[in-house]
Amino acid sequence: MAIIEVEHLHKQFKVAKRETGIIGALKSIVNREFITKEAVKDISFSIEKGEMVGYIGPNGAGKSTTIKMLTGILVPSSGKVIVNGLVPYEDRQKNAKNIGVVFGQRTQLWWDLPTIESFELLKEIYRVPDSLYKKNMDIFCDILGLSEFLNTPVRQLSLGQRMRADIAASLLHDPPILFLDEPTIGLDVVAKEKMRTFIQEINREKNVTVILTTHDMEDIEKLCQRMVLIDHGQKVYDGDILTVKNRFGTSRTLIVDVEENGKELQVRGGELIKEEGNRKWIRFNRFEISASEIIHQITRTHNITDLTVEEPEIETIISKIYQEGFKEPVIQ
After folding, report:
1. Nearest to residue 152, comparing CAs of 143, 141, 140, 165?
2. pLDDT tens digits along 259-302
3. Which residue has the higher pLDDT, 125 or 186?
4. Which of 50, 211, 216, 243 has the most crowded Cβ, counting Cβ within 10 A?
5. Strands 209-213 and 177-181
6. Which long-range CB contacts under 8 A does 197-203 form with residues at least 24 apart?
7. In this structure, what are the phi and psi dihedrals at residue 198, rounded to the nearest 5 degrees?
8. What are the residues whose beta carbons fall under 8 Å from the beta carbon of 204, sequence distance 6 or more?
9. 271 close to 245: Cβ distance less than 8 angstroms
10. 313: which residues sit within 8 A by CB, 6+ positions away?
11. Is the dihedral of CA 79, 203, 221, 140 positive or negative?
């Protein structure tokens, strides 16, 4: 059964029309005109309990507007939104108890208080039982390493520490649903891995449903099996990441190290796109020729000392979808 249901969701905003110059500004004051902007256009999807879904798109695509409707902050212009059996904007308090939210650029912690006091205040706000609070804090301290800065004021925390504290705060009351908006933004490689590992642990151990919006495609690849892709307020794709790679990631790159023998490297069905000494980069279409066929050609004229095949990055694939639209590749 779906824990989140969205049907034919629309959200429109009225934006004041502004004219340039002093005369235009005076006109706007006396006789203000409005333009209707449709941020979300007829979006439908459902998410099952325990799923981790990447909700992605370029800036201005409607991601944040959708999330705000799911959390009850915004009221839809039309359409249906059900989150864990509730209509978010009608039951904001009940909905708040069902969800955890982390916004990468904002914090729910009290800036001047020691981190532990923020947790204790949230415990009271959400009426978390003592036993559950202790159990969760033990888990968070163990996996996220909170113990090292629990007594440090929030304003003195590094970005990585604050993000770890924020995600712990969002899960303190054991919500079944977690909304993550850019949870690894600005973090170094080590901090990102800690965050991703924790999200995977929480999903696996507590079956928490995770909706992730991010511009870091590595987050999507490592955490999600499914993604919902939107552009200009409309859904472009909803399905597993592997399908997108198979449809749009037709290009592969074979990287080979060869022993120099004075012979030119030539490959039919592949394109030599880069050379650095004895290392060669060969791009090929996997629907037209296989990596093994290219390797076989190379071994006729050169000894191969090392090789690897690079898969296309999901970010490159998504960029291609935006530019070309969602079309099936031609398979020969």
Report:
1. 165
2. 888 788 888 999 999 888 889 999 998 888 999 999 999 998 99
3. 125
4. 211
5. parallel
6. 197/143, 198/143, 198/144, 198/164, 198/167, 199/52, 199/167, 199/223, 201/143, 202/171, 202/178, 203/50, 203/52
7. -65, -45
8. none
9. no
10. 217
11. positive
Mean pLDDT of the chain: 87
> Is residue 201 within 8 Å of 231, Cβ to Cβ?
no
Distance of alpha carbon 168 from alpha carbon 155, whole angstroms: 17
Write the single-letter amino acid at 226: R
Torsion of CA 135, 136, 137, 143, to 10 degrees: 110
- What is the residue whose two structure tokens read 């070309």? 324
Task: Determine the Cα–Cα distance for residues 98 and 78; give it in Å rounded to an integer.
Answer: 23
Cβ–Cβ contacts within 10 Å for residue 323, how many?
Answer: 7
Q: How far apart are CA 206 and CA 132, in angstroms?
A: 13
Question: For 268, what's the count of Cα atoms within 13 Å in the CB-facing half-sphere?
Answer: 4
Closest by alpha carbon to 6, among 69, 63, 61?
A: 69
Strand order in the sheet with 279-285: 270-276, 279-285, 251-258, 304-310
What SS3 string covers 189-248? HHHHHHHHHHHHHHHHHHCCEEEEECCCHHHHHHHCCEEEEEECCEEEEEEEHHHHHHHH
Provide the 8-state DSSP code for 265: P
The pair of structure tokens assigned to 238 is 């909803």
Could you tell me if residue 121 is left (phi over 0), alpha (psi between -120 and 50 degrees) or otherwise beta? alpha
Neighbours of 68 (CB within 10 A): 20
